[in-house]
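Issue 218. Parser rejects a valid record. Input:
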Amino acid sequence: MLKRKITPQIEAFMRNPGNKMLVVDGARQVGKSFLIRELGTKLFPNYIEINMEEDKQHDRIFAEAKSVNSFYFALSSIAGNKMGAKSDTLVFIDEIQAYAHLLTLSKFLLQEDRFTYIASGSLLGVTLRKTQSVPVGSIEQLHMYPLDFEEFLWANSMGEYAIGEMKRRFEQGESLDESIHNKLMELFKRYLLVGGLPEVVNSYITEHNIYKVRLLQTAVMDLYKADAAKYETEAVKKLKIQRIYSMIPTNMGNLKKRFVMKDIEGKKSSRTSDYIEEFEYLVSAGIAIEVDAISQPTYPLVQNAGKNLLKLYLNDVGLLTNILYGQNIKPVLDDVDSVNLGAVYETVVAQELKCHGYNLFYYDNKKIGEVDFLIDDTMAMSSLPLEVKSGKDYEVHKALDRFLSIPDYHVASAFVLCNQREITLRDKIRYVPVYMTMFLKKDIEIPDSDLRF
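Output the parser choked on:
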């Protein structure tokens, strides 16, 4: 079983659910159901799992379960012998988005206080947006992502002590020894190929077979595209969602990487507003990562975000390298000079930062240029710019230099994420190995003494 950072949160809820239902959302194939099942069967003598996708496709027992009594009746028809007390009975409602009425019903089920409830869904962001009677206060929501790089290191037997020491050196600005750096770069490049989908990671760990890795990744991509057809009723909208999703890797090869609206349907008059729902679907479903443009980077960044110059990244870097390189692993592992890995590096950084809870933005200004990512620096109450470099010219970043030279922005520091081993500081810019993005956490730990006032 892969070690996941979200495990303690789910286990803590199961041990002390209070009067809420935990809802774990996220894209398909990120490991939600497997993890809940493993913990649920371990902690509860009476474990009941019902998959609403399967029910909708077959018996439809829960299709009309819109009252507490009708839900209990439907549940007892398949698991009556397991309906014990709240302390020993967990009801796991998998793929709850198939029946949105169950989200509304959860408030009344919790008032009955008969069982412990947990749910998961692959398109909950879409479902919640369309559900009018969401029981505020009754649902505790967690979002689950593919394995981040630290979790990938755990899967490859790297211990907590080693990672803790790397984190300490990152925070102190101390470079790693060359042998350790080389090992981490090797694992990082393998992560670029494998990504963080649990089934794919397990396949890599057990067989190290790129052919089987790519087969699994292709199946996931097909599943993501098919989901649009399943949950959208309008045929035209389905096609536009699938078209936009298919365009993401191609856009990564463009200089600007942003979406050009006229390219979606070949209409010169197209605007961002014409595709807002389609973009929201992909982001809410967890299969795309949204990065919004910022022209005035004042804190907090969200107040200045614009949707007109939107970038989308795939939710998993392994899916991107599958599309770009297929079974040819040399462009990633062997530093082929003719191959620009910029899009791949940006995708993995976007994936990592999103896993850490950041809202993502990029800086766009005609005179100054573009900076790859901006995130909120809560300690400095300003923006933190991040530039991603996959090549040897990591010290060349004219747009970032111009950005930092503007006093009105009040930017305290910046990072350049690159292949360089040494951690160096020049003016406001700190150059760090790209794999150390894993230590850019939203909730920064600081000594207690700094919190006294």
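Fixed in the parser; the record now loads. The first helix runs from residue 7 to 15.
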